[in-house]
Design brief:
By secondary structure, the protein is of the alpha+beta class. The chain has 11 helices and 17 strands. Helix content is 35%, strand content 26%. Bound molecules: 3-hydroxy-3-methylglutaryl-coenzyme A. One of its GO terms (biological process) is acetyl-CoA metabolic process.
Length: 393
């Protein structure tokens, strides 16, 4: 008789930017009531990358923390999920592989489907480990959300990375079967190759998100998945935290319930604490929500079922459950995550605008970035059309 190994997330580390912008500063600049952002959108602060930071520097920081604690034994694969790629050909994960000192006997690849691809990476990792339970997989999600200055998406920017060590007998969360999935070709949000900021049909994207999450949920149920009341918590993709409330209400109504806004807010509160002060981190967002839940939930979640609801515009959605493992608390990184978020340097609106307008040369000439980040890795500059990175600590 074959024994299905317990596979899931053993360790989860976050990283974000050196700078941040309070949304009150954005509201003041545009003459908007700050409550539109803090209440209507549900965001307080957004992470802003310095000139010497990018998806690689955040990803390298998060991945290095995983390796410092767990070593590299058994790691044969690094799956890098992003939609803010820095190269059309080379995986950003290969830079991370070198920066954190992974052995050469590790395969590296980048996956893309808007905010969804980290969930695909996690499921692919589970499949690799089911084939050989002695292997471990690094799943690294890293993104920067950028919209045009003055656009309605501007308040939903942000940046973060989430690195996960996926393995058999994990310390944090086992990934359960089934998974519910849903795909629909829709133009709700996209970024053509020639643009550094995304194009978005704001209201249409909210409808597309709800429709796709509903579709993934119905598929999950049709495959024999648990019912809504079996979940101690659900971590939704959070382009802004209010979106998670809309999504949860949608699944509740599909399940025949009718929770009040206060009930929804209380149910989701712990999953939103980090995203509220980081902003949209695209592929990382749903795993930032998971870290937020585990780091903040006061009661003991051991044995509790947690839902993960992943959405990527364009669009693909997936819903699956996981079970929190005994002793999970000893494997969290609460102090590290809190210190990282609290130590960000707050920008004023003028400095934020300067950073937003900074562009890199496209002619291959030598270009050194300003030395600003206090994080452990920095993007040092360009030369010969190649990006250069260095460790700062
Ligand atoms: P907007 O149109 O400027 O905002 O931009 P609004 O007028 O709709 O107001 C937002 C909310 O604030 C509303 O609440 C207002 O009532 C409320 P709702 O009706 O939605 O519950 N409000 C106030 N509340 C309190 N006090 C006030 C006040 N004023 C207004 N004074 C929008 C909002 C989200 C459209 C915009 O920020 C945007 O386009 N963002 C980017 C797109 C996005 O995040 N879409 C989310 C779904 S798609 C997704 O998640 C995928 C994504 O992550 C990308 C990927 O997959 O790669 C984006």
């Amino acid at each position: 008789e074959s024994v299905v190994p317990r596979i899931g997330i053993h360790d989860l580390a976050l990283a974000t930017s050196h700078y941040a912008l309070p949304l009150t500063a954005l509201a003041d600049h545009h003459g908007i009531d700050p409550a539109k952002f803090t209440v209507g959108i549900g965001q307080d602060v957004m992470s802003v990358l310095g000139p010497d930071e990018d998806i690689v520097t955040m990803a390298a920081e998060a991945t290095s923390r995983i390796i410092e604690r767990n070593g590299t034994d058994g790691i044969r694969t690094l799956l890098f999920a992003t939609e803010s790629g820095i190269d059309q050909s080379k995986s950003a994960g290969v830079y991370v592989h070198q920066l954190v000192g992974l052995p050469q006997q590790v395969r590296v690849v980048e996956l893309k489907q808007a905010c969804y691809s980290a969930t695909a990476a996690l499921q692919f990792a589970v499949g690799l480990i089911a084939r050989d339970p002695s292997q471990k997989v690094l799943v690294v999600a890293s993104d920067v959300a950028r919209y045009d200055l003055g656009s309605s998406g501007e308040s939903t920017q942000g940046a973060a990375a989430a690195a996960m060590l996926v393995q058999a007998d994990p310390a944090l969360l086992t990934v359960e079967n089934p998974a519910g999935v849903f795909t629909e070709d829709v133009m709700d949000f996209w970024r053509p190759n020639y643009r550094s900021t995304a194009l978005v049909d704001g209201k249409g994207s909210i409808r597309a998100y709800l429709n796709a999450i509903g579709g993934a949920w119905e598929d999950y149920r049709a495959q024999g998945g648990a019912s809504l009341e079996d979940f101690a918590a659900i971590c939704y993709h959070q382009p802004f935290t209010k979106m998670a409330s809309k999504a949860h209400r949608h699944l509740a109504v599909l399940s025949g319930a009718n929770p009040t806004p206060d009930e929804v807010a209380a149910y989701l509160a712990d999953t939103m604490r980090y995203n509220r002060v980081i902003g949209n981190s695209y592929t990382a967002s749903v795993y930032v929500a998971l870290a937020s839940l585990l780091d903040h939930h006061e009661g003991d979640l051991t044995g509790a079922r947690v839902g993960l609801a992943s959405y990527g515009s364009g669009s693909v959605a997936e819903f699956f459950g996981g079970v929190v493992q005994p002793g999970y608390r000893e494997h969290l990184r609460v102090a590290e995550h809190t210190a990282m978020i609290d130590s960000r340097v707050m920008l004023d609106h003028t400095a934020y605008e300067v950073l937003h307008k900074t562009t890199l040369p496209e002619d291959g000439r030598e270009y050194l970035t300003a030395r600003e980040t206090a994080r452990p890795y920095r993007f040092a500059g360009l030369g010969d059309h190649q990006r250069r990175y260095e460790r700062t600590l």
